[in-house]
Amino acid sequence: MASQIHILQTTFLSSIPKTKSSKLEPHSRKLTITASKFSNPFIAGRKLRAAVIGGGPAGSSAAEALATGGVETFLFERNPPSVAKPCGGAIPLCMLEEFSIPHELIDRQVTQMRIFSPSNIAVDFGKTLKSHEFIAMLRREVLDSFLRSRAQYKGANLITGLVTNLEVPVSQNEPYIIHYTANGSLRRTLAVDVVIGADGANSRVAKSINAGNYTCAIAFQERIKLPDEKMEYYENLAEMYVGNDVSPDFYAWVFPKSDHVAVGTGTVRLKQDIKVYQRGIRERVKPKIDGGKVIKVEAHPIPEHPRPIRVRGRVALVGDAAGYVTKCSGEGIYFAAKSGRMCGKAVVKASEGGERMINEGDLRREYLKEWDAKYINTFKVLDLLQRVFYGSNASREALVELCEDKYVQRMTFESYLYKKLAQGNRWDDVKMVMNTIGSLVKCNVVARKMESLVL
Ligand SMILES: Cc1cc2nc3c(=O)[nH]c(=O)nc-3n(C[C@H](O)[C@H](O)[C@H](O)COP(=O)(O)OP(=O)(O)OC[C@H]3O[C@@H](n4cnc5c(N)ncnc54)[C@H](O)[C@@H]3O)c2cc1C
């Protein structure tokens, strides 16, 4: 695996112009800062120095933007390239182009999506995809390692080490001190002007700045190697399952990976029962995975909403650390990379290419305001849809029934693949709303009738 990642990196990164990275000064606590609340003074004799904590999609994208824009950048990642973050690895089409991700990194191009209702009614959800459209499935170790290496090529100093503490200054004229362990046990510190917290759902940076908590779902996933003939079935097919047996408030999935499938589920409300729901999804897909061998079991929190505080002082949170995962789909990779890049660019802009000190107001204006203007509504709509459709078996039946509709399919895929609100037709929109209400009412009536028959 490590050698495969190395080949991918050298093949695709050699074409990218390399920027010279600066020499790291370990144990550095010295950094002269002249900051003021109202002005951004020039920095004499050096460049603005930023630390990005976490080398996932959010951190690497932030570091790449910072280094490209002239900021002295240090990217901290605790894991070596071969370690993967637990994840389904599905990304939308637009991310490949926007983040120049080589197609060779993709394991599977999913063109068929099948959704199963609580009563196991299956609906094919990819009928309206055009011939060039697909959902890209990648291994996170491959994607993360590529993005990290690219940030390094662009001039970021990559430090493989665990950040153990972020020392927050008491006055505006002092630096932030990063405490970290490198090479297993060497304790070191680094003084920086700006910190970007991209250290995921259990963010240490968020804790250090008292950014507050968010509700988390727990996601559980088993990687199962299937016999060849069974793997063929999942060649370009991803499956979603809804129902009280697989999750009280989310969906369960079977996603095809390079040489295995990822079978998993998630829940917010009943985290202690996650293994019960995992047994539920395994039961539903039993004939399709029989004879398979579990090669990995993993679990990880997924944030449910943005943190109360995402910027404090000269520290900003991005990706999962900030809470940017959409409800309904549990999608976070694209939003992590996007927020990282947006925040990195914001620092570059406010510091005029690393020449000036920045302050909290800059981060709020150039990053937070931009982010909220662009995405807050998307997050709100998906939150609402999750509440409406994942709440009971009756509404899940209605959801699957609606998925049959070609207009619903086109609107959903266009919004997912291209991350912009699909241009609909007013009459079809009205029909869609009526159908939604109709399906919800019908399925609820049927559910109540079933209940009265059972009682
Ligand atoms: C089971 C599961 C399935 C998912 N499936 C999908 C999917 O198919 N598609 C999708 O879009 N999203 C999916 N998500 C969500 C997605 O994984 C996250 O939203 C995404 O990884 C967020 O990226 P990030 O860079 O913000 O954080 P992360 O990917 O969590 O990266 C954080 C990085 O910081 C490092 N780090 C943490 N603490 C420290 C420290 N103290 N010092 C140094 N380094 C540190 C970590 O090692 C890690 O590399 C899934 C999540 C789960 C749990």
TrEMBL record:
At the top level of its lineage, which domain of life is listed? Eukaryota
Q: What is this protein called?
A: Uncharacterized protein
- UniProt source species: Bauhinia variegata
